[in-house]
Design brief:
Elements: H1 3-9, H2 16-30, E1 33-41, E2 47-56, E3 65-75, H3 79-93, H4 102-125, E4 132-141, E5 144-150, E6 154-159, E7 164-166, H5 177-185, E8 189-194, E9 200-207, E10 217-218, E11 231-237, E12 242-247, H6 249-252, H7 257-263, H8 269-284, E13 290-298, H9 313-317, E14 335-336, E15 342-348, H10 353-357, E16 370-371, E17 378-379, E18 384-385, E19 407-408, H11 409-418
Antiparallel strand pairs: 1-13, 2-3, 3-4, 4-5, 4-10, 5-11, 6-7, 6-12, 8-9, 11-15, 12-13, 14-15, 16-17, 18-19
């Protein structure tokens, strides 16, 4: 084929200004109103929350704005909750490549959330403090919602179809059989508290340490099989919008997801948050810190989220989310609900970094310098663990070769500890 023929077959070049104009128009169409309300009652003073409405994928470009909402429920002190509130967002964003499109950014976000959670945990544990925190972290970009969580705080989605969907997975050992199996397989012990006379009381806990949760940030006084690797779910709403209720376990110990959603339908977000807290207090009393964020994702032409048409709930319920394993490895399901309410883009709950970070993590192999996939530090591969490097001499013979991206020595040690490949030096006997 001649050069002239090839030139005729190529699509005409589009001026850069035209491309930018198209992107701006697309962003404008896809950007709903985001309105929120917050309410809280303190019992121990260990709940914290983060709201940022002015984040930008491209600094200085309002068209690339996204919002972040997060709740941190601390335990054994407040240090871990405060540290995560102050550092987690920055650690997540540092793990996302620069100069990529919005769609690429959204696709990279689930992996960056994992890296950011693990990095934050490593940095906090280096401080030598023993507190811990649950985290429910929500990113809203247009109609796309991405939720990452460790612990037993929760995020639910209430759509205009009247169906309430859980966007997080509870990491309580009492309720989560998969997590109990993972903890015991990694070297932890799961059991109830023994009291005088040999009687067992209370919820299932992990020993050493006695933590009721299998995932958290912090908790240096328990085994490292209590991991900071989050469950991540990403969905896309239709332009009908929807409501998120993000709350600490002080809400969910008192109210079911359905009751919490129904209790505040038809109210503005600020009043809705107050009503959910009031309903939890009326149901159970103030037995724990109780924090609630209500976030409405509203079409541009609607000042408030309209009330849910209750008569359609039963008809719609079977169409919204198809049943799916929490540890689904199908990352490209892209399943659209029959009525167009919610599109599932991603869901993964595995605690294994090799599965969460993937094999295609970007690396500049030609320069001879590798960037750690977790802490984002550049260093020669001899100082860490490179892709497909196989077991190093000090690994146990039964260890499987690492089949993931480059990790520095510090992050490799963290990965091994979470998988039960070496004892945690900070572990104490219960």
């Amino acid at each position: 084929m001649s050069q002239a023929e090839e030139s005729r077959m190529k699509p005409p070049l589009v001026p850069l200004a035209t491309l930018l104009g198209r992107e701006l128009r697309n962003e404008k169409v896809e950007t709903p109103f985001v309105k929120f309300g917050q309410a809280a009652l303190a019992k121990k003073g260990e709940d914290y929350f983060l709201v940022k409405l002015d984040c930008q994928r491209v600094p200085g470009s309002p068209a690339t704005s996204f919002s972040v909402f997060s709740i941190f429920d601390g335990h054994n002190g407040i240090s871990a909750a405060i540290f995560a509130k102050e550092n987690l967002l920055g650690n997540i964003l540092s793990a996302i490549p620069q100069g990529i499109s919005r769609e690429e950014w959204l696709q990279a976000l689930p992996r960056a959330l994992v890296a950011g959670f693990v990095k934050t945990d490593i940095e906090f544990q280096q401080r030598g403090e023993t507190s811990g925190t649950t985290v429910t972290f929500v990113v809203i970009d247009g109609w796309t919602i991405t939720v990452a969580s460790v612990g037993d705080s929760r995020c639910i989605l209430d759509t205009q179809g009247g169906v309430v969907s859980l966007l997080t997975v509870d990491h309580r050992l009492e309720e989560n059989a998969e997590e109990r199996e993972r903890v015991t397989a990694s070297g932890g012990e799961v059991g109830r508290l023994n009291v005088f006379g040999g009687n067992e009381v209370g919820p299932l806990r992990c020993w050493p340490g006695g933590l009721c949760l299998s995932r958290s940030i912090g908790d240096t006084d328990v085994g490292e099989f209590i991991v900071p690797v989050p469950h991540v779910k990403q969905v896309k709403l239709s332009n009908a919008g929807g409501r998120l209720i993000i709350a600490s376990d002080g809400i969910w110990d008192a109210l079911s997801s359905d009751v919490a959603a129904k209790s505040c339908r038809g109210l503005p977000a600020d009043l809705a948050a107050k009503l959910v807290v009031k309903e939890a207090l009326r149901s159970r009393g103030l037995k724990d810190d109780t924090t609630c964020l209500v976030v409405d994702i509203i079409p541009l032409d609607q000042p408030v989220l309209p009330p849910t048409p209750r008569k359609k709930q039963n008809m719609i319920r079977s169409f919204l989310f198809g049943k799916k394993s929490q540890n689904s490895t199908n990352k490209t399901t892209n399943k659209l609900s029959a009525i167009g309410v919610v599109e599932e883009l991603f869901e993964e709950g595995s605690a294994m970094l090799a599965e969460r970070l993937g094999k295609d993590f970007p690396a500049d192999v030609n320069s001879g310098i590798f960037k750690c996939a977790v802490c984002q530090i550049d260093q020669p591969p001899a100082d860490g663990l490179a892709v497909n490097s196989g077991p190093l001499p000090f690994f146990p013979a039964a260890s499987k070769p690492w089949d993931g991206p480059f990790l520095c020595t510090k992050c490799r040690n963290k990965k091994d500890a979470m998988e039960g490949k070496r004892p945690n030096p900070t572990t104490i006997t219960a």
